[in-house]
Design goal:
Layout (H helix, E strand, L loop, with lengths): L2 H98 L2 H10 L2 H12 L21 H47 L5 H24 L4
Helix pairs in contact: 1-2, 1-4, 1-5, 4-5
């Protein structure tokens, strides 16, 4: 075989060998990047799913607490209303006794007032209601009168509303984590599909999209509250 031909064959073999090494090096780099992306996406998916599950659990707990406070508020409001109705009934009887001039019966009704209503009654008398038309209509309208049960009902209702809002916020946060979990699942899908292709442009394009979605998903997760 002529020497020039041997040199040409050796040159072509050397070029082919370099091309094969470059291809293998490219494939190794891409595979390393794919493994890293898969690992990060898998961890992020697990974390997002965990946070979504915690959000669901927190929502259930908070809604349960809100319902409990509502029940307690209803019970307190019922008791407070009954107490106020009893005091108002005795106050009307006191007015009738006063109109009849029965001081003994008046004193008996006053003794039956609840302590809170009695304070309002005494303040109402000091307002001179029988001669001053601007005086409050009754003891229950005086600032000195307080109904602990009705106040407790209001406090419980306020707390129940705040707790319910927290539960709704936890549910919304869990939904956002679920959406991010779907995004990470899409990253896993794109990387898995991209590994089936040997065309460099297609594989790199899919990898670029997957990395972009992964970065966006990680940024979104970092801005969400921890549950």
């Amino acid at each position: 075989m002529p020497e020039g031909m041997n040199l040409e064959v050796a040159h072509r073999l050397s070029e082919k060998e370099r091309a094969d090494r470059a291809k293998r090096r490219w494939e190794e780099v891409v595979e390393i990047v794919e493994v890293l992306v898969l690992a990060v996406a898998a961890i992020a998916t697990a974390w997002s799913g965990y946070q979504a599950a915690r959000g669901d659990g927190r929502q259930s707990v908070l809604y349960g607490q809100s319902s409990r406070d509502r029940f307690q508020a209803d019970a307190a409001a019922t008791l407070g209303g009954q107490e106020l109705a009893a005091d108002a009934s005795m106050f009307n009887a006191w007015l009738q006794a006063r109109a009849a001039g029965n001081a003994r019966l008046e004193a008996a009704f006053v003794r039956r007032f609840s302590p809170e209503y009695r304070r309002g009654f005494e303040a109402w008398l000091r307002a001179d209601p029988f001669t001053d038309p601007a005086a409050p209509a009754g003891p229950a309208h005086m600032p000195e009168y307080r109904n602990p049960q009705l106040e407790e009902a209001q406090r419980l209702n306020t707390r129940a509303s705040a707790t319910f809002d927290e539960g709704t916020e936890a549910r919304e946060t869990a939904d956002r984590y679920v959406r991010v979990t779907v995004l990470f699942a899409l990253v896993l899908f794109l990387v898995a599909v991209g590994q089936r292709f040997r065309v460099r442009g297609v594989r790199l394009g899919g990898m670029a999209v997957a990395v972009g979605l992964l970065v966006y998903g990680l940024y979104t997760v970092s801005t969400l509250p921890r549950l």
